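Lab manual, section 2.4: Encoding a predicted structure.

Procedure: take the sequence of the chain (281 residues), apply the prediction step described in section 2.3, and record the output as structure tokens. A sample record is shown.
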Amino acid sequence: MAINRDLICSSHTISGVMPGAPAPSRHSFAARVEACANAGYKGMCLHLRDYRWQRNAGFSDEDLREALEQNGMRDISLEFLVDWFLEGADGEQARADEATACQAARAYGARSLNVGSDFRGRAIPPAVLRARFHELCERAGENGLSIALEIVPWSDIRDVAAALALVDGVSNAGLVIDSWHVFRGGISLGDIEQIPAEKILCVQINDAAEALSGDLVQDTLRRRPCGEGSFDLRSFLASIDRTGSTAPLSVEIISPEFAALALSTAAARSFDSARALLRSM
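Recorded output:
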């Protein structure tokens, strides 16, 4: 199998807080990195907001990079940039976040930045979205970064066809394929298998209950460790494997219950459940 069996840890999995909390984590940066290493992770997907928080707290780029290097975190990526297609105040904030991401990439040695499209139904014209995506990727390329676009079922990029249309012809652009978005968004595994291997930059794995908890936006905050829900993750990963992709597998678990766990427990449980899934294939 071509599939990458090294696992990286998503920022949300071990933050100890829910997305949008006042602080990006209730655990120190060093403690999170060490917990990931002890669990068996080989890398991390770090949030640009977290980087800004650490620098404001007085930690230098060298401090942060040393923590990663000493714990063998060799596969680093960044998340999550939104509103990069807007003008006005929201667009200005997106440019500031983009600058933070580029600074974080230099500090961490990150190679890619995960981004989302329009989540709020603002009817961005496709030509405008594409033009601004090209501009984003051009700026990212100047900083040695690839842009990884996430397919999200309540966004304007909700299926494989729309996603491939946006990244087509952009050498440093590809996709984030998240098992939650695939199964909850009704994306067929056959469609996943049509994605060129080089256009899959990250694969996120997680599980969920059979029935939705509220709407999609609410349910995405009720994820479970691999093997503790209803998703056919073995078939999902088999389809990823059929593409020939060797993109990193990122474990992304978001839920109030998981956020409340002790740091070492969250790191070990998330890793062990994903490793068990890989061993079953």
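Check your result against the sample. The mean pLDDT is 96.
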